[in-house]
Design brief:
single chain; alpha/beta; TIM Barrel; Arc Repressor Mutant, subunit A; nine-stranded mixed beta sheet; 15 helices; 24% strand
């Protein structure tokens, strides 16, 4: 039976599913606002959902909170205040807990965001995607480049000194020069963190059903390399496939995912992961996706659609699916801590990945090579269980 050798960090993810309009590339659980958002009812449901999860994590401290969506910044400061007060009443938080709120440029109001900051929300993640009006129109965004730049100014003027900007590349008809111009404008805005990732056509999206013409693979690879070089030169260190941060500003919440930590998930469509030291098991669960169904189910303590204990043979792949995204890699001791398994259980796939020059091993430290980062899916699949 797996045996965890150290306490596993615990984070909290809160999903708020409403947005102004569903983007054609978005595969997250988001729903366009048709009438008024039922803020009070939804916060009540979140608290009922959290109450249901509490017995499984008694005594554990929350390391970070991430409020994602959808567009959580559509909520009023009063609703977010009720949410955070309810969380603090139920869970012990670190004094310096990182509390992130996702926002889109079209939802920015300076007074509102000052109130968000006053609530203790200390990190903001803005879905810029591009500063180019033509590109934004092609991917169905409702803001323009001016609003994107203005949103950053409002965030900074509102007291957010820990700020992430999301940027996408490989957009329909985008050139390498246009992608690099977005990166340079983001750098000029001076955030502490930039997420730079490629547009992909995900199942169950409008773009998957009606694919736009995207740049070819070589051009997209050039965009990625050019962006990485510009970000590095500006003092942003890449620490994950798509994450770049200034010193001391790595996203703690996402690092917990990538290091195979635990997380509570509350809200419509939220996922969670819980490691149980007594049984040596790791469980995943997910919640009802439709907001109305979720709120009704949460009130009766039935928000979770299913709870699944991960089979022991699946744990190596589950661990590597996250940790291999880290540019600097990880120590083998983390594998033992987070899966409860001996390093012997992955000796053969480790050896094969090193022989293929996808993985570099230095004593007990492992990290993907440049080739491994380029063919990351192949590297991860090396750890799938044998049939």
């Amino acid at each position: 039976m797996p045996a965890f050798t150290a306490p596993i960090p615990l984070s909290l993810y809160v999903h708020i599913p409403w947005c102004v309009r569903k983007c054609p590339y978005c595969d997250f659980n988001s729903h366009a606002v048709r009438d008024d958002i039922p803020e009070r009812e939804y916060v009540d449901a979140l608290m009922a959902d959290l109450d249901t999860e509490l017995p499984g994590i008694w005594g554990r401290r929350i390391e970070s909170v991430f409020i994602g969506g959808g567009t959580p910044s559509l909520f009023s400061p009063e609703a977010l205040d009720r949410l955070l007060q309810g969380v603090r009443q139920r869970l012990p938080l670190r004094p310096d807990t990182e509390i992130t709120l996702e926002a889109n440029p079209g939802t920015f109001e300076q007074a509102k965001f000052r109130e968000f900051r006053a609530l203790g929300i200390n990190r903001l993640s803005i879905g810029i995607q591009s500063f180019d009006d033509t590109m934004l129109e092609r991917i169905g965004r409702i803001h323009n480049g001016f609003e994107a730049r203005r949103a950053v100014e409002i965030a900074q003027d509102s007291g957010f000194d820990n700020l992430n900007l999301d940027l996408m590349f490989g957009l329909p008809g985008q050139s390498r020069a246009q992608a690099l111009a977005d990166v340079q404008q983001a750098i000029q805005a001076g955030p502490t963190h930039i997420s730079y990732y490629q547009l992909t056509l995900e199942p169950n999206t409008l773009f998957h059903a009606r694919p736009p013409q995207l740049p070819d693979d070589d051009i997209r690879w050039d965009m990625q390399e050019a962006g990485q070089e510009a970000l590095g030169a500006a003092g942003y260190t890449q620490y994950e496939v798509s994450a770049y941060a200034r010193a001391g500003r790595r996203c703690r919440h996402n690092l917990n995912y990538w290091e195979f930590g635990d997380y509570l998930g509350i809200g419509a469509g939220a996922h969670g992961k819980h490691s149980d030291a007594a049984s040596g098991t790791i469980m995943r669960y997910w919640k009802q996706k439709q907001p109305a169904a979720y709120m009704e189910a949460a009130r009766s303590g039935q928000a979770a659609i299913d709870r699944v204990t991960l089979p022991e043979p699946d744990l190596p792949f589950e661990f590597m699916l996250n940790t291999l995204r880290l540019v600097d890699g990880f120590d083998l001791g983390l594998y033992n801590e987070r899966t409860g398994l001996s390093a012997d259980t992955i000796a053969n796939p480790l050896s094969r990945a090193c022989e293929r020059e996808l993985l570099l091993r230095d004593d007990d430290h492992l990290r993907p090579t440049e080739l491994g980062r380029r063919f990351l899916n192949d590297l991860m699949e090396s750890f799938l269980p044998d049939d």
